[in-house]
């Protein structure tokens, strides 16, 4: 009886517990049903988020163009490959949508991805084993080209999918790389997780990053568990805003001339550094700029020199500074070019060490100051600064030429040189470019006053910013006069002196003469401080100098100004340091002036033969090729039949030996072996091909064989290599004669 009562008691307790639990659960369900919330979270909102897919629509980064609209940097589509391994993704076994045969998939993908079959198979099988929805294949499965993506897609392998991912691409490879810099994909934490975006790392890509970067869009829709849209997906789309386009002052053709010359000198002389700049002295526009060592912004690895030496590396300039010393003396009214002085050695007083001319202090006897400029006499420069101008007044002129400050050029990481002017000897050595330091861009800015009637121009590389959607200009730069350190009369007199350096009887710059234009300029041979010396000593030896030249042409009214320096070239016993410098200067100056249609100022009676292009479009290709060839032009025809496009148009004026490209209505790939980068880019644009370049120099391989029929959008891969020493000499001569 006692056991029976206990049983009833316990049953009652359990019943009360169950009733309590039931009431709590019922109350909870009623609460959820009435409020639609759990722990403050809206179930309706939670369910909507669970069935809503939300994605970012990437904006396109703005393009970078040269001054003529040639694309220098853009977002190129690439693809990331992945494999769906969850068999639940397949609704119809007859049409599998996941990887149903890892062995066959691995066998077919291996040769296209440059991976071992076992590696691909194990990646897929591990994903299946770990019950993952999809797997990826590391770096070999990323940044696939359109061509590679199409090859893989053509296999029709179940479960193999692709996601489009743009990368920043530079179609010209090693081309103005220190100006353009580069941009790469970076990751940034956001409220919605990690955001991948292309960000400028160096150069204009970094300087203009905010302008080039766009604003991403957004898309959301409701979907099932397999990420498929519902019939009524409630889709919401916010369109992306693409970044602005940036146009540079760089001229792609002149830049290519410069790059080719730099590569040839680098190959032949193996210098420690090369720096070169081409500037329009009338406007301050930087037309071309290059450094060696350089790098390919498409794959910036093992870079020897990140710095743009033109703006970031001040060095002792050497005798190019003498043009500013003479200009100061003339402007101050204390210069008489016919006055004589004793060259060789000069010691102002017993407290100052002797100043020697560059021929070991032997000098050339008693000569005029004009001849001293031709011969690049240190003694003449020292006497002008110390005795004629006066060191205090000379410092005022140096500052008037802005040699003590940054130029303000619109490139990152500019570093100004330093004028050493504390001691008497420093005040003298500065007059011939020793002790004080300058950057090439500081010298060019100052020299623009000499080339431009006394008006000193602000150098710049960004020409305009354009809205990529509307095509409207947002900002456009114009020439800016930033100083007037000398008068027009003084600039005219200095130009005559500069001309005498190149063309005079005793000039040190005879090597810089060119065929059709009169060049003026100033040579420089700067000593290099010994890094191991604590007493300020310099390196010794023939090669241990920075050889330079700052020149302009045509000298009566300079249209281009070029600075070139070559540091520590490897010279043969019979070679001088001016040889690599003059090779760059003469090639670039001569061909650039012809390209810009600047009238030659030499031999005015000799007419440069110009050829007027006839109507080409709609004409038979074979007939027009013969017509143009008979006129002395080099003609490449891409195809047979009727001409539909050409690299020139009716009425254009071209020179004998110029290269003309004709495209027909039945285009085929011509042989482009031995072509320059600019010609390859031109034919790719005419044929509307997607081009990818490797290396620099001249074409050695092309992936599309000559004679292959072409269609719009075909992929053209081209490999370039620098010419050999023997070829470089022949090609430079041929290029010059062609320009004539």
Total number of beta strands: 35
- Arithmetic mean of pLDDT: 86
Shape: globular
Number of helices: 21
How much of the sequence lies in strands comes to 15-25%
- Provide the CATH top-level class of the largest domain: Alpha Beta
Poorly predicted segments: 724-740
Q: What is the CATH topology descriptor of the largest domain?
A: Beta-lactamase
Count of discrete structural domains: 4
Catalytic activity: Preferential cleavage: (Ac)2-L-Lys-D-Ala-|-D-Ala. Also transpeptidation of peptidyl-alanyl moieties that are N-acyl substituents of D-alanine
Pfam families: PASTA, PBP_dimer, Transpeptidase
Keywords: Membrane, Transmembrane, Transmembrane helix
Family: Belongs to the transpeptidase family.
Short overview:
This protein is α+β, with helices and mostly antiparallel strands and 740 residues long.
């Amino acid at each position: 009886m006692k056991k029976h009562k206990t049983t009833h008691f316990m049953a009652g307790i359990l019943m009360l517990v169950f009733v309590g639990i039931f009431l709590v659960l019922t109350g909870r369900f009623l609460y959820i049903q009435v409020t639609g919330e759990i722990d403050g979270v809206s179930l309706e909102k939670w369910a909507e988020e669970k069935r809503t897919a939300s994605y970012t629509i990437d904006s396109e980064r703005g393009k970078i163009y040269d001054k003529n609209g040639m694309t220098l940097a853009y977002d190129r589509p690439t693809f990331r490959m992945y494999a769906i391994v969850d068999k639940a993704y397949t609704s119809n076994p007859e049409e599998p949508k996941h990887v149903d045969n890892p062995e066959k998939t691995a066998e077919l993908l291996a040769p296209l991805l440059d991976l071992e079959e076992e590696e691909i198979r194990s990646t897929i099988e591990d994903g299946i084993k770990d019950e993952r929805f999809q797997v990826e294949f590391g770096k070999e499965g990323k940044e696939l080209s359109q061509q590679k993506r199409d090859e893989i897609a053509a296999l029709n392998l179940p479960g193999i999918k692709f996601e489009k991912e743009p990368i920043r691409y530079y179609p010209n490879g090693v081309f103005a790389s220190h100006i353009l810099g580069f941009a790469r994909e970076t990751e940034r934490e956001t409220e919605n997780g990690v955001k991948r975006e292309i960000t400028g790392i160096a150069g204009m890509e970094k300087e203009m990053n905010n302008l080039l970067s766009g604003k991403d869009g957004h898309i959301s829709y409701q979907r099932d568990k397999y990420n498929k849209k519902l019939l009524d997906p409630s889709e919401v789309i916010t369109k992306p805003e693409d970044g602005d386009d940036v146009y540079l002052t760089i001229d792609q053709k002149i830049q290519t001339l410069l790059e080719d010359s730099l590569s040839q000198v680098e190959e032949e002389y193996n210098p420690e550094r090369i720096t070169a700049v081409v500037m329009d002295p009338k406007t301050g526009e930087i037309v071309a700029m290059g450094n060696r060592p350089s790098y390919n912004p498409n794959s910036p690895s093992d870079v020897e020199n990140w710095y743009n030496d033109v703006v970031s590396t001040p060095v002792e300039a050497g005798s190019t500074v003498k043009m500013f010393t003479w200009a100061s003396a003339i402007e101050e009214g204390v210069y008489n070019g016919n006055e004589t002085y004793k060259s060789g050695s000069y010691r102002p007083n017993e407290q100052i060490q002797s100043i020697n001319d560059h021929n070991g202090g032997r000098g050339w006897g008693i000569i005029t100051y004009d001849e001293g400029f031709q011969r690049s006499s240190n003694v003449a420069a020292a006497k002008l600064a110390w005795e004629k101008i006066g060191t205090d007044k000379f410092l005022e002129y140096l500052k008037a030429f802005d040699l003590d400050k940054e130029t303000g050029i619109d490139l990152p990481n500019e570093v100004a040189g330093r004028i050493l002017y504390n001691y008497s000897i420093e005040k003298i050595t500065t007059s011939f470019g020793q002790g004080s330091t300058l950057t090439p861009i500081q010298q060019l800015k100052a020299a623009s006053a000499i080339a431009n009637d006394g008006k000193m121009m602000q150098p710049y590389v960004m020409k305009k910013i354009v809205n990529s959607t509307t095509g409207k200009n947002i900002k456009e730069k114009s020439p800016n006069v930033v100083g007037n350190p000398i008068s027009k009369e003084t600039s005219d007199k200095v130009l005559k002196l500069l001309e005498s350096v190149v063309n005079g009887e005793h000039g040190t710059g005879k090597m810089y003469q060119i065929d059709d234009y009169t060049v003026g300029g100033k040579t420089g041979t700067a000593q290099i401080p010994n890094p191991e010396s604590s007493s300020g000593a310099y390196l010794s030896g023939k090669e241990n100098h920075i050889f330079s030249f700052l020149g302009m042409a045509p000298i009566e009214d300079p249209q281009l100004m070029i600075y070139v320096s070559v540091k520590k070239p490897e010279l043969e016993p019979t070679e001088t340091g001016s040889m690599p410098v003059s090779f760059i200067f003469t090639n670039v100056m001569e061909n650039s002036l012809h390209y810009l249609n600047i009238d030659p100022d030499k031999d005015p009676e000799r007419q440069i033969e110009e050829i007027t292009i006839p109507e080409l479009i709609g004409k038979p290709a074979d007939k027009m090729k013969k017509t143009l060839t008979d006129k002395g032009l080099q003609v490449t025809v891409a195809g047979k039949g009727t001409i539909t496009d050409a690299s020139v148009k009716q009425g254009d004026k071209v020179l004998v030996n110029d290269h003309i490209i004709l495209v027909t209505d039945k285009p085929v790939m011509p042989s482009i072996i031995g072509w320059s980068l600019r010609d390859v880019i031109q034919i790719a644009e005419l044929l509307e091909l997607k081009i990818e370049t490797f290396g620099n120099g001249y074409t050695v391989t092309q992936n599309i064989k000559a004679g292959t029929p072409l269609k719009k959008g075909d992929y053209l891969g081209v490999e370039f290599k620098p010419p050999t020493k023997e070829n470089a000499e022949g090609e430079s001569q041929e290029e010059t004669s062609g320009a004539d």
